[in-house]
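INFO batch 0412 | record 1 of 1 | parsing
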Amino acid sequence: MKVRIYDSKAELGRAAAEQALRVIRSAIEKRGRAAIILATGTSQFETLHALTEGKGLDWSRVVMFHLDEYIGITPDHAASFRRYLTERFVHRVGMLKEVNFIRGESENPESECERVSSLIQGYTVDVALVGIGENGHLAFNDPPADFNTSEPFIVVNLDETCRKQQLGEGWFETIEEVPSRAISMSISQIMKSNTIITSVPDARKAWAVKCALEGDVKADCPSSILQNHPDCTLYLDKESSALLSGNYR
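INFO prediction complete | emitting tokens
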């Protein structure tokens, strides 16, 4: 993994977005279209804002895939990731070639996994913009994550640390309101992306960053798998990089 450390979240977000825009433009020039994966959560605010500010990019040639969604959450819920991406990305960039959301309210989550899996299998993903959870999760693949499944989207159980993070970020008023299951893109599908851009600000992510970057690759720290990706860049701020022992400047 390549590591970039910045003095502020805004700088981190701009740098991550600039790389993503370069990749997207290159894919459009080569193939006439680009396919991207977008994450949500507070860690992505600055990156997505800077991404939507990119000039001279024809978003009508871009296919977007949604990383994960709670089971049982409707699109109008305040914590809905579809609502998050609609408000913070889709409505800002205008017409996209395709918008592929996960339907968390589906009565049959397994069938919904099959539906979105069939959609993404038709594309090579040019760039995935992701984050890392406080427990080291990648998407909603909480530890111990399944590194072996070949299914693009899977139903997962959310652990207590993950659910407390969602509460702490302000998406829910009580822990009881936080869903215990979600549909998530699998580790293997994320790793198929040609480029992975990982935005991770804040001190509360410092342990997870150290685990991902300086620990062994193991299911108990799902994001450690990024060490095996040939083109992954980790964008950090001073706080999230505070526990790193190496010199990454």
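INFO post-check: The mean pLDDT is 94.
INFO record closed
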